[in-house]
Amino acid sequence: MARIDAFLKLGLAQGCSDIHLAVGVPPMLRMHGDLMPIKFRDLGDTELEGYIAEILTANQRKRFDEGHDLDFSYVSEDKGRFRVNVFRKETGVGATFRFIPGSVPTLESLDLPAVVRKLCDHHQGMILVTGSTGTGKSTTLAAMIDHLNSTQNANIISLEDPIEFIHRSKQSQVIQRELGTHLPSFADGIRASLREDPDVILVGELRDAETIQMAMTAAETGHLVLGTLHTTGAVKTIDRIIDALPGDMREQSKSFLAQSLNAVITQTLVKTPDGRGRKAIVEVMVMTRAIAKLIMTDQTHQIPAQLQTGKDLGMQMMDQALLDAIQRKQIDPDDAFRFATDKGLFQRFVTDTSVLPKFEVGN
Fold first, then answer.
1. Average pLDDT over residues 204-212
2. Model-level pTM?
């Protein structure tokens, strides 16, 4: 058994989402959003490098020695599955292990809005799940893929970095390919998938212009494309795509978004009232003629008003979703206050008044 498995086993027993290992500090666990050290000595450079070396392949070791960060999946001795990032920093090596549950979540178990399920019924176009790092984007996409896998006869190709949830083919065929193992880049993966008779293509991250262009091509040519971006709202997502492409493609990208972007789902994770879990809270933008016109006329700043009035289509602003979850007693109002845009709407729900001065000083 690799020595690092002992830390992973401890983390899983505590119910954490991530295990952090870094030189000069003890191992740390991410517990319901908070980082907490475990009772252990500070890790030394040689010690930690030895732990990590035990779980690397020869090729991974070579890449790491050449100065590259590593992203890969790892299955521990007790069958726990993790997404791993290994890196070097000023004081030595470091690693982050994100726990991946053995069973694929369902849309019902995540308690996502009903509109998310309806969006899966699209047969072409693009659906983006966005949010900052660690907000559960991969989990939401896995649930969407599971819904498609359970309800449609489709060829689903998933391009991931690395492969996280393992999907077993049900009504659909699910093909999972991993960056660096099965394909050199997301763009190459999309290009290859178009020759593999796909119905649905999942792109782990739209991280560069070439990947965005290839994903747009796939969405325009009769395929449903699911993808992620590290953006925190529909407006920022649309602007990011337009800005990522060359200037001479600006009108073309606006036209694509207006015609082929089905929806943007932006999410964050907020603590539950008992502090023992987190719930996904989502902002939803569904493409309409009005929003398409705003995109074409460079008036994306007016999109939030459309979200506020589009409730009958399943649309909602993040603040609306947070307020609704507070009133349903699904989330901690103090934690919700941290994520709110218009914090004044949330002050009356706050129970820990120490968070309020931070807001007032900020103004």
1. 96
2. 0.90
pLDDT over 90 for what percent of the chain?
92
Residue 361 pLDDT grade (very low, low, confident, very high; cuts 50, 70, 90): very low
Residues recorded for the chain: 363
Cα 246 from chain centroid (whole Å): 26
- Unique residue bearing structure tokens 């073309």: 252
The Cα 333–Cα 232 span in angstroms is 20
pLDDT of residue 362: 46
User: C-alpha distances in angstroms, 355 versus 35, 91, 150, 268, 270?
Assistant: 19, 34, 44, 19, 15
Task: Give 11-28 as a DSSP string.
Answer: HHHHT-SEEEEEBTS--E
Task: Enumerate the β-bridge partners of residue 75.
Answer: 81
The angle that helices 234-244 and 250-260 make with each other, rounded to 10 degrees, is 140
Q: What is the rounded CA–CA span in Å between residue 281 and residue 72?
A: 28
Residue 360 has pLDDT above 70, yes or no: no
Mean pLDDT of 334-343: 94
- Rounded to the nearest 10 degrees, the angle between the axes of helix 250-260 and helix 289-296 is 180
Integer angstrom CA distances of residue 160 from 9, 71, 181, 187, 235: 25, 11, 10, 12, 25
CA 183-164-226 angle, to 5 degrees, is 70
Kindly state the helix (H) or strand (E) to which residue 325 belongs, with its residue range.
helix 318-327
Read off the DSSP letter of residue 257. H
CB-facing half-sphere around the CA of 72: CA atoms within 13 A: 21
Q: What value does the mean pLDDT of the chain take?
A: 94
